[in-house]
Recover the amino acids of this structure.
């Protein structure tokens, strides 16, 4: 029996765990020495799901050590909720197993698809925003929620084009998806900003169209200016325009929302990362940092190689 | 406009990806048709773009539909190249940027990722390098031998990546240990974190040199690229101890034993001693001396007898 029957109102998002950062392996040695929240300066972590499926090494050990002291959220990139092929049963099975062991605060992924015909592009590809897609994604969200016995939290991706056949704006699509499936939302304000510049919509209109009662979390990150468009590079500080959107989102939600800073390339040392995260607390007090967006150092959206490299081969020996 | 794409460019059977008439028709494509079309464009790259890009994707004065699509097409290659480079850093140093890129792109075109995890991306890279190695016939022997270097280096670095993630011995120390006593043959098991890699080059030294070279580069220091490794046969054991991945060179008798364990076969010590031309007592003595370190370092597991 479905735990989340269709057409039900979205479950209330869990209470905000506060301010967190994405867990990255380059910070493990530092976190070994500053394990507790009062030492690290963050309230919670978001772990990339796929980095811990089938993983029985040091990264998994760190994840579970951190879990003893922090809420952890599993954030996936390969669920491919919008793909026109059947869901990957092996992936879901392993995700459920990991969730059972880790007890994450929630599980999130993206409103996108990543491949078909068995091929994974490892990119968050845009969906045609049509009635057919909406029906399809609603059904799959419900399948996933039934299987995981919890609401799925879906993130708006950064987008570089729209399909000609689109019948919805993205915020309309998300609102309808929430209403019909009971899923919750991870609102990436950086992605809203990137997409608004690239596609030419008003980010205020996007925020106004979201079902804010379903917002479980938000993401912050720094994009890169390519001149003609923005790329979601996660490789630099959060610019003023994104901080403004963040302030507007939290103000509109009228409640604390779990806030997470993503940084995936040219990753700073952990204390510098925490300093950037702490700006979010100041923004909520009305102090918005004044920053220009940097011109691109990289044109790669959502870099991921840092998570598969050999840096742990040369990590400090464990005590 | 219609084109039939060469089979070698495609990651699935040719018949399924044929012409614009079949997959690029624009009369309200279904979700599946749109996704198939877009995935083909992403995999094939900007050179395969056609006029139908504008019919399917909205462009603007600032950025045409083809330019927008190219962001995904270029991102796909850059992302996976970056991952392969991260997993095979010594191979990248050895081949240099342009040659590594050539092989990596060829690999991605022939074998696009079919797994949810990027950790699996490099699984077939060494075999790909082996399959695409030029025939050595007609070449001087030393030149032909050098052609084996990329695939062997890739195999070694892939073994390191596997050791990083596999189920190790860290959680099972209690039920394993040293042999019961020095006069008995031990029962051995190879943990999933241990893998023997036979090579024709001094790759142990080369790996250490490239690690130092890459570390210096990260720290902004100037250092010469390591010279190519000397030709010499080595049996290298990649293993993990206390979550740290290491590589050690094995003696021939140790390698023969580990190879047998790797094949899932129990050691027939009498035959093994005879094959090595050793008295059983000599083999037993050597084995226990080695096991004192090998078991303590989690290279092998000594099971309770």
């Amino acid at each position: 029996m479905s735990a989340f029957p269709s057409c039900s109102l979205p479950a209330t998002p869990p209470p905000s765990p506060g301010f967190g950062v994405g867990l990255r392996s380059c910070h493990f040695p530092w976190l070994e020495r500053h394990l507790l929240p009062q030492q690290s300066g963050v309230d919670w972590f978001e772990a990339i799901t796929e980095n811990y499926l089938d993983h029985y090494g040091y990264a998994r050990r760190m994840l579970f050590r951190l879990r003893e002291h922090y809420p952890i959220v599993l954030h996936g990139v390969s669920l491919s909720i919008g793909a026109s092929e059947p869901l990957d049963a092996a992936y879901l099975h392993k995700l459920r197993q990991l969730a059972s062991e880790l007890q994450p605060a929630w599980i999130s992924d993206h409103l996108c698809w990543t491949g078909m015909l068995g091929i994974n592009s490892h990119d968050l590809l845009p969906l045609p925003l049509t009635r057919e897609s909406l029906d399809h994604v609603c059904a799959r969200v419900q399948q996933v929620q039934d299987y995981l016995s919890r609401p799925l939290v879906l993130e708006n991706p950064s987008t570089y084009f729209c399909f000609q056949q689109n019948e919805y704006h993205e915020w309309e699509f998300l609102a309808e998806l929430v209403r019909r499936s009971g899923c919750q939302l991870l609102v990436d304000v950086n992605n809203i900003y990137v997409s608004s510049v690239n596609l030419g919509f008003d980010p205020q209109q996007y925020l106004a169209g979201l079902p804010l009662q379903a917002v479980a979390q938000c993401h912050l990150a720094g994009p890169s200016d390519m001149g003609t468009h923005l790329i979601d590079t996660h490789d630099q500080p959060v610019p003023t325009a994104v901080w403004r959107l963040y302030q507007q989102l939290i103000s509109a939600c009228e409640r604390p929302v779990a806030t997470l800073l993503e940084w995936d390339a040219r990753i700073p040392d952990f204390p510098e990362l925490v300093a950037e995260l702490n700006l979010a607390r100041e923004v909520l007090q009305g102090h918005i940092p004044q920053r220009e967006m940097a011109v691109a150092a990289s044109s790669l959206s959502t870099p991921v190689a840092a998570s598969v490299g050999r840096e742990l081969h040369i990590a400090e020996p464990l005590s | 406009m219609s084109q039939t794409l060469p089979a070698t460019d495609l990651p699935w059977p040719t018949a399924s990806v044929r012409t614009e008439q079949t997959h690029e028709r624009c009369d309200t494509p279904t979700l599946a048709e749109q996704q198939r079309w877009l995935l083909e464009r992403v995999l094939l790259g900007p050179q395969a773009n056609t006029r139908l890009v504008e019919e399917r994707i909205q462009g603007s004065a600032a950025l045409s539909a083809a330019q927008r699509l190219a962001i995904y097409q270029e991102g796909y290659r850059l992302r996976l190249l970056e991952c392969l480079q991260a997993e095979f850093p010594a191979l990248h140093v050895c081949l240099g940027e342009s040659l590594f890129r050539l092989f990596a792109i060829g690999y991605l075109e022939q074998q696009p990722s079919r797994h949810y995890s990027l950790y699996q991306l490099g699984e077939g890279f060494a075999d790909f390098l082996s399959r695409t190695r030029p025939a050595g016939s007609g070449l001087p022997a030393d030149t032909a031998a050098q052609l084996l270097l990329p695939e062997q280096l890739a195999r070694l670095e892939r073994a390191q990546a596997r050791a990083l993630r596999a189920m190790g011995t860290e959680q099972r120390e209690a039920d394993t240990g040293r042999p019961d006593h020095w006069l008995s043959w031990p029962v051995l098991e190879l943990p999933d974190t241990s893998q023997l890699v036979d090579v024709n080059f001094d790759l142990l030294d080369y790996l250490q040199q490239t690690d130092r070279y890459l570390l210096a580069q990260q720290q902004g220091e100037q250092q010469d690229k390591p010279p190519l490794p000397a030709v010499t046969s080595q049996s290298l054991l990649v293993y993990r101890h206390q979550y740290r991945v290491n590589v050690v060179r094995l003696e021939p008798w140790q390698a023969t034993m580990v190879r047998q364990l790797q094949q899932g076969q129990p050691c027939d010590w009498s035959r093994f001693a005879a094959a090595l031309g050793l008295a059983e007592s000599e083999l037993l003595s050597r084995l226990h001396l080695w096991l004192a370190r090998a078991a303590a370092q989690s290279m092998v597991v000594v099971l309770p007898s």
In short: Residues 1-24 of chain B have pLDDT under 50 and may be disordered. The beta strands of chain B are 187-189, 195-201, 231-241, 244-250, 301-303. The two ends of chain B are 72 Å apart (CA to CA).
